[in-house]
């Protein structure tokens, strides 16, 4: 809680500060949340609007039982929303009224259930019914507004509470800062935090700093998080294990593993002990780079410090070994974790199954589901089935994938858009375009609970164009636009490629030229597709002009782009131009691919004495 200070705690100052401290103009809340005196009937105890928490349990058995229930549910949440609403209704009709702490526990239970809008609605009812509220209530509701992405309402509530004599505490302000960060406003959050310290409105402790650092990390604002981390240390607030672990995890996820390792060395040097969470984050980061020697070193260090790997640590290793095709090592890890008393879970076995599928051993993955997991009583989840369905589709066994798809409903699982996309792609990949179109229309388009994404559209457009259903692809594209789905550059690239390969170059060109009007920039793949289309139609000048234009627009060509244009020059007998481009390609560290080399050999066989071709052969021998 905040202590009373001199003029800094005056209502007028705090109200002004609540509006100006971040530079944000608070928007007025909706009618149901207007802060009129007849609506926000806060506690009238003006001498102490922030009473110390107390736990008055009634001698009335009904009251006492309900209070015990609220204490428990505040930590876990209710099983059903209707149960929470029934308890609230009962509380409103109790005489005498239960203390505010019990109403706060009910709101906390709703937050645990992620029913933030319901919590706000009950807060409104409390105010209308004259139920006293305290700063804990206010902080809870501010937290709900932040989760609902309405930080403007949170600041409006802050202003209203300050006017009525409440003094926001460090929890309240930390919640607001987290809300700003969650809406990707780190600069405003930093300004708020700086001003709170400047005006001595809060005395941040390690929990406050760590909470804000965690919020920044979740939004991938690593540099700001590191700056705040150094600032807290400079101000004499020593970071703890949680602070270091939070920052280490963020850096590892952003692939700055060496910087994360430096933090590990720093914390141990300062006598701050890393825990299993710290090491697990680092092991994940190192596995992402296949730095197995460093992984083994960390595992050895954990053993020296008597830190036992937990299920998450082992799961990271199983997943990493599986992705690298080291299935035996993944199985050894599972065996070892069982010996250490750790119980493999659905994540463990799903990772193992994924490893099998990546090696094409889908039947072994299925055996894990049907034998090992069943024997251990481990219930498969959506990811388990998605892994198997993807595995069978890649093995061109789509019917087996469909069997698993149908099995999901029998075990109470609802397929995700990823499941549907995988099967749709599998049908097209096996040439079963009729089944693919039928599956899309009957299972996906008619499924109101399913939200199609850009990946769905890309699969369908590619499949239709590949099977020469260009008119149908364009019709679907128009339908997609009418439905409000905003295509990304991948969608446009797919359609441009399909149109150009099916004799609709002008339509492809029109789509490409209009990309800037859609707020999109062609990537290297899009440029390469258009260059290939121009080359195919013998429009070498257009192809070369676009090649020069892409670099001027800040998109550098890659090896595929160079090889595509070089082959275009070959096919159109522009051998000197091809030679110049080969020099440029090699100078940039790229090399000719198999198709380019094969095209040159074919030309040499048919035109053995062509001087330009002989010069190209010599150039190839020089470079390769």
From TrEMBL:
PPR repeats lie at residues 134-168, 205-239, 240-274, 275-309, 310-344, 345-380, 381-415, 453-487, 488-522, 523-557, 558-592. The lineage of its organism: Eukaryota, Viridiplantae, Streptophyta, Embryophyta, Tracheophyta. This is ATP binding,nucleic acid binding,helicase. Belongs to the PPR family. P subfamily. Residues 1-23 form the signal peptide. It comes from Heracleum sosnowskyi. PROSITE patterns: PPR. It comes from the Eukaryota. It holds the Pfam family PPR_2. Keywords: Repeat, Signal. InterPro entries: PPR_rpt (IPR002885), TPR-like_helical_dom_sf (IPR011990). Coiled coil: none annotated.
